[in-house]
Amino acid sequence: MFEYITGSVEYTGPEYVVIDHNGIGYQILTPNPYAFRPSKESVRVYTYQYVREDVLALYGFQTRQERSLFVKLLGVSGIGPKGGLAILAAGQIEQVVQAIEQENETFLVKFPGVGKKTARQMILDLKGKLGDVLADFMPDLFSASSRPDEEGNARELEEALEALKVLGYAEREINRVVPDLQKESLSTEEYIKKALRLLLNGKR
């Protein structure tokens, strides 16, 4: 089991990043790949190796707390790795924990692939068991997002929309938040987080 991988970000796409560590490129699936911009500077990614009969994948997170919540989510019937990533992509794990502790099914069902049955299962399985997730939580520990220039804005927005599709949001849902996103000049990571806030606050 890898605890973390440290290296430079060689590639960022809608689904994964590639971290170069001593000449070996690790393909790491992550909730918001655009939190990691290609750079020669070293970053640390906390990892979880997912092994099933027909799957071997490496998942990565900015903090141990995000990884801890991801692992706990995988233990809930009805939630797989893709669903876990979608729940973490907004970068607001405090809200997720609060929704579980307060039995707020209305909030939980806003995530892709989470229906009432799965939301109820999340509450039954995880309520009262997430104290370690928020311990010493420090969001955006090594996020290096930067504001795009005006010419890069369209590309950043397009990348964000592709990432939302990968997370499981339907095109009709995405289209509803596009007008709000187009009013802003943001980095890809910031576009994704803003879109997720809009989607989770009911603009669906």
From TrEMBL:
Annotated region Domain III: the residues are 153-204
Which residues does the UniProt record annotate as the domain Helix-hairpin-helix DNA-binding motif class?
71-90, 106-125
Question: Out of the domains of life, which is the source?
Answer: Bacteria
Q: Which UniProt keywords apply?
A: Cytoplasm, DNA damage, DNA recombination, DNA repair, DNA-binding, Hydrolase
Instruction: State one Pfam family annotation.
Output: RuvA_C
Q: Which InterPro entries match?
A: DNA_helicase_Holl-junc_RuvA_I, Hlx-hairpin-Hlx_DNA-bd_motif, NA-bd_OB-fold, RuvA, RuvA_2-like, RuvA_C, RuvA_C_sf
Picking any one GO molecular function of the record gives: DNA helicase activity
Protein localization: Cytoplasm
Domain free text = Has three domains with a flexible linker between the domains II and III and assumes an 'L' shape. Domain III is highly mobile and contacts RuvB.
Q: Which family does it belong to?
A: Belongs to the RuvA family.
Q: Any idea what job this protein has?
A: The RuvA-RuvB-RuvC complex processes Holliday junction (HJ) DNA during genetic recombination and DNA repair, while the RuvA-RuvB complex plays an important role in the rescue of blocked DNA replication forks via replication fork reversal (RFR). RuvA specifically binds to HJ cruciform DNA, conferring on it an open structure. The RuvB hexamer acts as an ATP-dependent pump, pulling dsDNA into and through the RuvAB complex. HJ branch migration allows RuvC to scan DNA until it finds its consensus sequence, where it cleaves and resolves the cruciform DNA.
The entry describes its oligomerization and partners as: Homotetramer. Forms an RuvA(8)-RuvB(12)-Holliday junction (HJ) complex. HJ DNA is sandwiched between 2 RuvA tetramers; dsDNA enters through RuvA and exits via RuvB. An RuvB hexamer assembles on each DNA strand where it exits the tetramer. Each RuvB hexamer is contacted by two RuvA subunits (via domain III) on 2 adjacent RuvB subunits; this complex drives branch migration. In the full resolvosome a probable DNA-RuvA(4)-RuvB(12)-RuvC(2) complex forms which resolves the HJ.
Protein name listed in UniProt: Holliday junction branch migration complex subunit RuvA
The scientific name of the source species is Ectobacillus funiculus
Q: Which gene encodes it?
A: ruvA
